[in-house]
Structures are given as C-alpha cells and as structure tokens.
Amino acid sequence: MVPPPSSNNQAIQQFLSSVLSQHGTSALPYSEDTKWLIRQHLLSLTTTSPSLEPKTATFTHNDGRTVNLLQADGTVPITFISATYNIPVIIWLIESYPRHPPCVYVNPTRDMIIKRSHPFVNPSGLVSIPYLQDWIYPSSNLVDLARELSSVFGRDPPLFSQRPKPNPNPNYHPNQSSLGSVGNTGGGGGYPRPIVRPAQYPPYGSGGAVGKVEAEDAAEVHKRNVINKLVENVHGDMLQFSKTREAEMESWFRAQSVLRGREEEFNKGLKEMRDKMEGLELHLQVVLMNTDVLEAWVRENKGKLKGGSEDIDVDNAFECVDVLSKQMLECTAVDMAIEDAVYSLEKAVQEGAMPFDQYLRNVRLLSREQFFNRATAAKVRAAQMQAQVAGMAARAPRYAT
Predict the structure, then answer these.
(1) Residue 212 belongs to what H/E stretch?
(2) Rounded to whole angstroms, how far apart are CA atoms 72 and 93?
(3) Using CA atoms, how far apart are residues 265 and 197, in angstroms rounded to an integer?
C-alpha cells in the first residue's frame, strides 16, 4: 500500500494515521503503545528527507514468514569527491521497532552493483552501521539514522555503476521482467533479505524525460478542470477527516493517562488495605493469647470460692502470679495512697485546720516517697513487657494458622 503520490505533508500524515489505526487482520504488527511514536518518527524523516517515502509492503523472514510492515523507500544523498549522488535504500520498520533498530538495505538499480568487502554492507545489501548496532530506545530515531547513512556512505559508497551488457534477445523488454528474490548471504545479524522489486531510479545527473506536447480540445480541458476540482474537494474532505481522527486519538491518549493514574491509586489503596488486614490479624492473635491466659486463670481459681461473697477478704481476693506482679501491685497501691493523702492535706489547708508550713513539709516527704515508688513501677512494667513479648514469641506458632 502506497500513500497518495503527493509531497504534501498532510497526505503523508493521513496515510500514516490510516494504516496505524487499522485493527483486526489488516492491522500492522506494532504494539499499540508505540504506534504514535512510529508515526512521529516517519513524519520527522519525511520532513528532513523528502526523498524517503513511507509505504507498506510485504517482508519475508528467514523462516519463510511474511508480514506486512512499514518501510521508508527512497534515496539518501551523499557527497563523494565533491559530487552529490543518491544511494537507493529501504528502511524496514520491523515488528519490535522502535525498541529495536530497523532493518536497512541498499536497493541497487539494474545498472548498479554492491561493492565487494564493504565494511558496513554485506553482499545481500544489508546495512550494519554503528548507529544501528548502538540503537538506544527511545532516543534513537530515523532522522539521525538517515544522516548517519549519508555520512558513512559518503566516506565509502556501497554501490557503483556497471556498464550495461548487450542484450542477446532483441525481443526482451525491461518491463516484462519477473519479480526476483535475493537471499541473505552475509552476516546480517539475523535479519532476512526482503523480497522486493528493485526500485527504478533515474541515472545520476539526469534531468528526466521530456514529454511530447499534444493538442487538446476544449472538451478535454473542461474535463481535466472538473477532475482537478473533484480531487481538490476530496483532498479537503480527507484533511478534515484526518484532523478529526487526530483529535479523537489525542482524547483517547488522555483517557488512557487518566486510567493509568486511577490504576495506580487503586493499587495503592489495595496495598493499604492489605497492610491494615495484616495489622488486624496480629491484633487478633494477641487477643486470642490473652483470652487463653484469662481462661486458664479462671479454670485454676474456679474452686477457690467456697463461701459467700461476705466471707471474701478483699486484700486476699487476688494473688500475684510472680514477684514482679506483687511488686507492681505494692508500688501502685502506695502511689494511689499518697495521692489520696495529698488531696486530704490540700483540703485541710483550705479549711485552716493545718498550718501552711506543715503542709509543705508533709507534701515534700510524700512526694519523695511517691517518686521512688513510681520509678520502681516503671522498671517493673518494663520487665513485665519484656517477659510478655518473650511469652508471645513462644506461643506464636500455636496461633499461626
């Protein structure tokens, strides 16, 4: 498939938008997230190198597979010995482009042959310049590739002309030649040689053929003007349709960006929920362990109450399980008793039952004793916490499931 025969950049844009937006069996084998970049690469190439025209053609791999790919077909200018020449090339955008470099071939005409032992072109025409070997995605592009081809081929042209041999068959006509295929016979880096018809390019320096002018009548002139008008109208409609499709593609890209942002937010929220669930599971394990301890204590002390509630001694109702618990209980009782004593002293001073200097002396003594009890309670609490953590670690395998 070839775009309309026009050098207008709008026509090339319409062609690329059309072939890259196709879906189904006719879609080109490029990933959706790179099609926009491929389009931009080809538009930039045709802007800087108008002689390279984007097309679609059939590419044949070494294993016999055929696939429809984009190509840039044309010439790259070189300067050799103060003269300007055009080297015919074909730049194939393979399926993994632009993450991998394109496949470049020189495409000699019938009066050209490939130079033997060229450092960057093998006998099948496959090009392997350093820019292709050092291809880096996404900085590498087709514009810099075309410039590098012109520079490398200008130092050492890969093609040169050969004298035409006499034709032994007088009935032979060049337009009746069959489509030929050229095999990959050199170190092509694993790339196949495509089956293409050699492009026909004018000889270097030729000015083109001069057409014969024929007289035209008024009817022919009117017919041609009508056709040109219709072509202009169709071209305008096509440009309008292309602008509409480009605007739709931009909106789709914006929607895709919004959806990706929402996906990130969803994944973040899901991670937070999972973290909370893990925290709740750990808390549940602690509650289950505490419940087990309380149930064990109830079972051990269930038969200790034989009389009624009036026979219960409050001071002996609870027994400390260890020395730390007993010490903690004593320190807490002293602390709370001192709090009550200080409160009573404040009431006595307010009512005038105690001199103020005596109040200060008693409060100082009580505060000193309260400080030591609280410091002891803090040390005991730290020791109990360490013992509890060790006990939880020992019981953790029991509640792991």
Answers:
(1) none
(2) 8
(3) 53
pLDDT, one tens digit per residue, over 95-147 is 999 999 999 999 998 888 898 889 999 988 999 999 999 999 888 999 999 99
Write 362-371 long-range contacts (CB < 8 A, 24+). 366/338, 366/341, 366/342, 367/338, 367/342, 369/334, 369/338, 370/334, 370/335, 370/338, 370/339
Nearest to 199 by CA among 113, 115, 121, 107: 107
State phi, psi for 118 to the nearest 5 degrees: -75, 135
| Residue recorded with tokens 């973290």 | 275
Q: Which helix (H) or strand (E) holds 219?
A: helix 218-301
Contact yes or no for 53/116 (Cβ under 8 A)? no
Matching residue, tokens 């038969």: 303
218-301 helix and 9-20 helix, angle to the nearest 10 degrees = 40
Separation of alpha carbons 283 and 277, rounded Å: 10
CA distance 311 to 319: 17
User: Is residue 272 packed enough to be buried (19+ CB in 10 Å), middle (13-18) or exposed (0-12)?
Assistant: exposed
Alpha helix (H) ranges present in 25-136? Answer: 35-48, 130-133
Whole-model pTM: value is: 0.43
Name the region of 154 (left: φ>0; alpha: ψ -120 to 50; beta: rest). Answer: alpha
Q: Residue 241: count other Cβ atoms within 10 Å of its Cβ.
A: 13
DSSP characters over 33-56 = TTHHHHHHHHHHHHHH-TTSEEEE
Please tell me the distance from the alpha carbon of residue 360 to that of residue 337, in angstroms, as a whole number.
18
Cα separation of 146 and 76, whole Å? 7
